[in-house]
Amino acid sequence: MARPRGIDSVLVLKAERVAVQARNVRELRMAQAVLLPAIGSLTLEQTATALGVGRATVARLQTRFRHHNQPELPAPSPWGGRRRALMSWEQEEAFLCRWKTQAEQGQLVVLTPLRAALDQQLGRRVKPSVVYRLVQRHRWRKVAPDTRHPKADPQVQVEWKKKRCPRSWRPC
Hints:
elongated
């Protein structure tokens, strides 16, 4: 069984006032998300069933109620977005523009120096996967290697096939 959540009495009194004077459904649900576990000793799952929402939503409603009409508390960040981003989108574009001209001229852009420059700009080491995701995020594609070696000579290959001994190659 889950441990009961400790809700202070001041918050319960505030929730009772808001429940009576609720101007919309959102305020009422936030107050109920606080009152049902505090007064009724319900768990988050039971409160979620009573409110007709998910268990995680009950916890979010309680958090929203704590921050409701309290400007001294920082507002929780909204859902979505790049929360763990090392740089903003514009900073990433500015970082990659140094290599963009090189890539547009058909030269190879090797990710090792790109990673070293990113380490230097951020002031800490990053894993290679961070650079690969950065490049992918900005729609830089990985060019696959050629299917044949650039120094390959087709005539030499044909001659080699003619001269080889049939017993030299055996399937496993």
